[in-house]
Amino acid sequence: MSANLPGLTPEVPTSANISLDDDGGGFNDSLGGAGDGWFFDQTPLDDAEFTSIANSAEGGAGHAFQSSFVDVATPNLNFNDFYRTIVHEIGHALGIYLSTNSLLDRLYSMTTDIGDDPNSSNAADRLRTFNGASGLVTFTTNGGGHVYEGSIGDAPAIVSHPNELMNAGRTVPPNGANPAPTIRQYISDLDVRLLDDAYNYTTVLPNALNTAHANLDSQTGTLLVQGRDGALNDTINIDVVGFNIRVQVNGTTELVPQASVTQIVIAGNGGTDTISVAAPLAPLRKDVQYVVSSNQDSAAAGTLGDGIVDLDVNVPGRQVALSAAIVDANGTAAGSSRSIYVPRGNYNLTISGTGGDTQGDLDVNRHLTIIGAGAGATVIDASTLATRDRLFEIASTGSLDLSRATLTGGYVTSSGGGGIRVANNPTAGVVELKLSDATIVGNTADPAVNSGSGGGMIVSAGATAQITRSAIVGNTALGSTGGGGIFSHADSVNPGAVVTLDRTIVANNAASVGPDLRSLGGSSPSSFTSAGGNMLTSVAGSNFATSGLQGTDYQGSASYVVTSVVDSFDNADNARALSVREAVGLANAAAGAQTMWLPAWSFVLTRQRTTTLAQGDVDVSHGDLDITDDLVIRGSGVSNATSVKWRAGISDAVFDLIGDFNGNGVTSDDGYVEGSDYLIWQTTLGSDTDLRADADDNGIVQGADRDLWSLYYGNVLTLTNVA
Question: How far is CA 491 from CA 325, 451, 495, 500, 685, in A?
């Protein structure tokens, strides 16, 4: 840490350096010279994987706090939490730090020595107290200065602060008890008041902000608003102030940019809550009874139907697994409805077996709504089941409304439907399956029973499915009756199933008959109906083959189908979560003209360029989407139903056909690399203000831009139904 030190007066810290290693703590030879690795939390609302604090001493000033825990995905490996480590070290940088040289540390000069640190064998480690408006705070000089966590046998007069963000990186059971599993710790009111007292910072208490009540997933646009846990009565008010959404929960206030929000998920979390949402925001509102907070696959739901799920009562907060929430919802009275929010993350099914709704696939026996953060962001995967199974089975007493999620990895050898099996619910007016803004990708039906039909899903006789703004891609039916994407049928008792497609992609599925769609039945056959705006790679085997598609539907071929709303570039070979950016990268790498299909979603680019202006940008991994070959990009739905834009505050092109200089270089290029582009290069050569011909985006038009024009001469970019 460096500080501004005029004369001999202790001053406020003005700058700091925080050093990070690449293996989560391996830079300290006294701890073995090799770290356990950094943990980047895939489920930030989930505390279930935090099981203990590592028993490792701080190795001196600046050594990272060691917060070890077990992640359910890798149960035998310990990691160090990157987020908590960084926040802890920022606390030191801001001034929660004790140096024996008072010229370097104002806080030290304001503390009083009260004796040895009983948790340290080093005689130099002392306890010191600070008494300010924040109250009495006890410090230890251990590791450069930390808030004292307490010890067995402390005198009553010694104030301790267990489970504090700024504790030292060591485990000491408070009051003699074994330490409880550690939750992720954030900046506390104590930390902020202390900094205010010692350094006169202008601060806002975390308790006043209470960011635990409102959380925005900036990439998917999901705003999650939660009340207090347990049977507490909350007052929640959500309205619009200027360009922001204002969230008020029990007197706290947070502002979220309205343009960034695509859905508002509200969970009162128990009690008799008063919830008010302004009329303009009502279409975005989705109320839920469960918020999934654990990526464990556990059906331990406790008392069924009571709306309470907690996998571990010893861990603060509710640890809610998706499977357990569904089992609890199934335990409600017949005809009941429940809603579950599943945040961004990977949710792997691991409990094999056929023992009802507690094993294997996720059985839906009541009216259930499941809301994810977004396709490709919330991923439910059945490929991890030792005994393979589908993902969802909707029973004759249930119905499912599933949105903003990806279902993948299902594999069945019975009853068909690799991803979803939809049974007929005899209750009048029930739509057994509503699927919206979702993807069904990479599921398989094997031919052991029911001829292996419905790779993506099977919709049984008498049932109804409505599929809106979704993508059914890359599924396989291995049996003779086919239906690689969707199989619908009739029987001697029930009329044919009815499946309505609305602005949906059904593409690149595989089967011997009806690779995408298969409708089958007798006197009252099943059927597919179109609400328009669909894209299919095949209609063979379905009633569309004879009745035809709607005027706004499209049939053709697709090299790539985008299946994720997240702007990522780390899984380019993973079709279950293929981003727009990754699809462009694959198209650039392939030989010849390629075609991309985009679902009817609003895509938000977030990976802004990381290079300096002088270095330029011709890499699709960051910045604008650089295109280096012939490419057709087609949006699903009617005109402008699909949009691709940058996150607010970022100014850059979206699709950039390198070498195409006609237009303003951002929105109005003509889509051809041709002779007229060379003329523009000639007239702007040397300019650092007119950058239409700046092909490499380095801030000046020069010879290298002409070389790129020449390299990509003749390329064409075609955008259809993409805003």
Answer: 34, 15, 7, 19, 72
Tokens of 400: 């499912």
Residue 72 and residue 47 in one domain? yes
Cβ-proximal residues to 18 (8 Å cutoff; 6+ apart), any chain = 62, 86, 89, 90, 93
- 28: Cα within 13 Å, side-chain hemisphere: 20
Q: Residue holding tokens 């070959």?
A: 629
d(CA 471, CA 575): 12
Which neighbouring-strand residues pair with 467?
435, 501
CB 130 within 8 A of CB 137: yes
Residue 625 included in any domain: yes
CA dihedral 260, 264, 270, 273 (to 10 degrees): 100
Token pair 């007239």 in the structure block, residue: 683
- Per-residue pLDDT reduced to its tens digit, 324-375: 999 999 999 988 899 999 988 889 999 988 767 788 899 999 999 999 999 9
Q: Give residue 54's domain range.
A: 2-199
Integer Cα distance of 286 and 143 in angstroms = 47
In terms of domains, do 106 and 172 share one?
A: yes
Residues 6+ apart with CB under 8 A from 426: 396, 462
The answer for 210, left when phi > 0, alpha when psi is -120 to 50, beta otherwise, is: left
For residue 176, pLDDT beyond 50? no
Query: Has residue 445 got a pLDDT over 80?
Result: yes
Same-domain status, 222 and 78: no
In this structure, are 280 and 388 located in the same domain? no
User: Please, what is the angle between helix 703-711 and helix 675-684, to 10°?
Assistant: 180
Residue 76 is encoded by which pair of tokens?
A: 């035998």
CB contact at 8 A, 250 and 276: no
State whether 499 and 464 are in the same domain: yes
- What tokens appear for 444 in the block? 């398989």
* Closest to 91 in 3D by CA, of 36, 6, 169: 169
Locate 193 and state its tokens.
């008041």
Q: Which tokens belong to 571?
A: 């899984």
| Phi/psi of residue 517, nearest 5 degrees | -130, 145
pLDDT at 171 over 60: no
